[in-house]
Amino acid sequence: MNHPPFTVTLFTLLSVVVLQTAAQTAPADWMPRTEDGVQLWWVDGAPKVFNSSLPPKSETLAFQFGSEKLLFDTQHVRPLTGEWDCAIVSAGRRYSCTGHAAPKDEFFQPVRFVECGRFFQRVVIEDLKFADAEGREWAGHARLEITTWPDRLAFRLECDGSETLELRHGGKTSTGSKSVLLEAVSAASTAVVESELPVEFDAALGCHRLALPEQPWSNASRTYYPEEHLDRVDRHRVTLRNDADTPTVARLMFTQQKHLTITGFQPMLCDPDGTPTGLPVQLSKNWHQRPEKGVLQHEGPWFHGFAYVRVPPKSKRDLVFQMVHARYGGVCAASHAQLSLIGWGHNQFWDQAAVGSFGESICFEPGRVQRRCFITDVRPLMTLPHEPAAKPWGWAENCGGGDFLMWMDADGRYQPMKATRTNYHSHGPCLTNVSYSEESSGGEIAAQMDVSVPAANDHLRTFIHLRYVVRQPVRWKRLAFFQLGADFYNTVPARRVAIGDVTGLREEWEPRRAKDEYDRTALPLTGAGAWISVHGVERALLTKGHAAASRGLILRSWRAVLGGKPAAPHLSSFCTEWGKGNHHNSLELAPPPGLDALQSGDFVEADLELVVFPADTAAYYGPDAALRDMLSHDADTWKPVQREAAGNALKPEVKHGTLVKPYPLVIAVDDKQRAQVSLTGGIGHIPVTFTGLTQPRSQRLLVNGKAIEHWQTDWNAATQRWQITCNVEASPNGRIEIEFEPLK
C-alpha cells in the first residue's frame, strides 16, 4: 500500500490527536526499559581473522538477553555451564552432538548470523556432527538455531530426515522429529496484535509476524532505484491491545522478501497522524545469494524488522508502521542496518549504512574478519559509475577501506580485538547512531567507537567519536588510532596527500611508492578543524568497480593523554603494495614522536568526520548546486575537504537550552522544554537534535518561522527521555533561527 505523504504540519496537531490508550497510561509506559535489549559477541574474538596469526582462545559466543547471559561454545556446540544434551536417535542408536564439521569453503562458515540487533538475535550452526557411544558418526544433516528476545531464550534442532531429536537444557527437555523447539527461558504472555497486514504468531520465534505487501513497483526510467518513487513512504496500521490486568509485551516481526529497495530504507512506528513515537524497530536484512552453491537457508533477499513494545494493563494503542525509502522530506534518508552475509560468505557480523537507497554508502565489519579492517566498502553519494550505460539512482563504485584502533606489538605481531559488540541506538532516517565497543586480545586497551551517518543531498559524511582507554602498559612496532585506508583494504590509488586546517592548506606532497614501510611519521596536525585529504587519483590503475573518489578526515575535537602527558594529534603515512606496482598509502592518526610506550590511564578521545567526494565533476548527479559548482573547479584536490572543515565549523548562539555539541548540532532543552539557537553559515543539511524531552509530542519546531515536517524520534531508556532529530538546510550566506517549544 502506497499512501501519499502526510500533509499536516509537524507538531501542530500533536496535542489534538487522542490515542486509544487507557487514561492512566503515560507515553513512557509503552517504551523499552534498560533491560529490554539483547547483544551478541565473540568472547575471545572471531574464529578466523584475515592475516592474523593469533587465533582466539575459544570460539565462544556470548548471548546477552535482558539481565541474563548465555555463553555458548560453538566449536563443541554446547553451553559452557549447565546441563545440556543435543542428540539424534536413528535406527535404535543414540548419537550425541560432538561439534560441527570443518568448513570446506571459507566463504560458508558453519556459524551463521541471521539477525543481530537491539531486540532479537538468531544464530544458526550448520553441519552438526553426531556420534554414538562407540564413536560411530551419524551420516545425516542437522542444524541448531539459537534465538533470543529480551525475555526469551530458545533452541531449535532440525534435521533433514525423520529421526527422533532430543534437546535438554536448564532442567527442560523437548523431543520430536524433523524440528524440535526448546524454550530454555520462556517468554511472558504477548499482547493482542491486529493489523491490515496479515498477522500470524510464530511459536518458534516467539513473536507475531506481520507480512508487508509483496507488490512490484513501477520503474519507468529502469534505474536501480525507480526515480518516480524517490519520495515514497508506505504506511500500514497496527493495533496493540492488552485486555489483562497485568502488563505484557508485544514482540513484532515485520517481514518482506520481494519488491523492496533493500539497500536503503527505514522502518518506523508512528502514531495514527504520522508522529514518530520513538518506539525502536530493529532493522535486519539480507540481499545475498550464491546460486552456484544452491539454495541456502536464510539467504536473501529479505527484510526483518523487530519491535519489542511494553503494553500496559487494560490498554489499546493504534500505531502506523511507516517505511521510509530513498528520501525523507526531500533529503536522501540515512539508514544503518545489520546486513546478513548468508549467501555471500564468512557469515559474520556486518553493518551497512546508506544515504538514500542507491547501494551501500559505508559498511562496517565488527570482528574485521574478511580484510582485517573495521571500515570496509565506501561509496561516494549520487555518483555515476564509470560505465557507458550508467544511470542515476544506482550503486556507485567502491573507494573503501579503513580501521579504528590498529596495534602491532613490539615484535610486529598484529594484535586482534575481542568482545566486539554493537549497540544500535538509532537506525535513522535523519541521523543514525550506532556504538561499537571492544578490547584488545589481552585486555590492554578498551575501545568504543560511536558512528553516525546523516541524511544528505550533497556528499557522504560519517561522524565518528573515538574513546580509547589504556588499562595495561602497551608497546608497539605500529600503532594507529585511526586508519584512512587499511593495510589490506585500500581500493583507490590516490597519489596526493594534504594537511591543513579551517584557514587553508599547510602542506601537500606525493608519498613515495614503497612496500610495508612509513613514508612520513608523527607529522603534527595543528590548527582548528585540522584535516587530511587523500586525492590525485591515478585513473590508469583503477580496477573495475573501484571509484574515482577523494577522501578526507576532519578532526572536530581531540583530547589525549599519552605516556602520562597531554598529547596533540599526529599523522603518519604507511605505504603498502598490491599487485604489480600498485602502491597505496594508509593515513594514520598516530602517537607523537619519541613516544614508545603507553601507560595505564592514558586515553584518546576524538570527534572525527570522514568525508567522500566524487573525483570526476560530471559523475555527480545530485541536486546540490553548490557542491556541483565547487567540483567544477576543485574536484580531486584538497579543497573539498578544507571547504567542509571550515564550512561546518559551526558556532551556534544558544538563547534557550544548553549546547551539547556544535556539529552535528545537539541542544538540551531547558526546564521549560524549550530550545532556541541561531546559526550562521554551514554546508549541506545540518543534523539538529533536541534532547531531554519529557514527551514525544505536543511541541512545535520552527526554522526561520516555518514548521519542520519531517523528523525522527528516539528514546533513551537510561534517562527516560526522548530526543527529536531533523535535518536543517544550511544557509552559507544567511542566518538560521531554530526554535523548539511546547504548544501552549
Task: Summarize the structure in words.
There is one protein chain. By secondary structure, the chain is mainly β. It folds into 4 domains: 38-185, no CATH class; 188-328, Immunoglobulin-like (Sandwich), CATH 2.60.40; 401-643, Distorted Sandwich (Beta-galactosidase, Chain A, domain 5), CATH 2.70.98; 653-742. It is 3% helix and 48% strand. The chain is built from 2 helices and 56 strands. Strands 32, 33, 34, 35, 39, 40, 42, 43, 44 and 48 form a 10-stranded antiparallel β-sheet that branches. A 9-stranded mixed β-sheet has the order 16-17-19-22-21-26-27-28-29, with no helix packed on it. Strand 45 and strand 46 (582-590) form a beta hairpin. The longest helix has 10 residues, at 625-634. The radius of gyration is 26 Å and the shape is globular. 50% of the residues are buried.
Quick description:
This protein has 744 residues and is an all-beta fold.
* Main sheet characteristics: 10 strands, antiparallel
Q: Low-confidence runs (pLDDT<50, min 5 residues)?
A: 1-23
Radius of gyration: 26 Å
Average pLDDT for all residues:
94
How many E-type strands?
56
* Backbone structural class: mainly beta
CATH level-1 class of the largest domain: Mainly Beta
Taking the alpha carbons of the first and last residues, their distance comes to 36 Å
Alpha plus pi helix count: 2
Write down the overall geometry.
globular
Total number of distinct structural domains: 4
CATH architectural category of the largest domain: Distorted Sandwich
**Approximate strand percentage:** over 45%
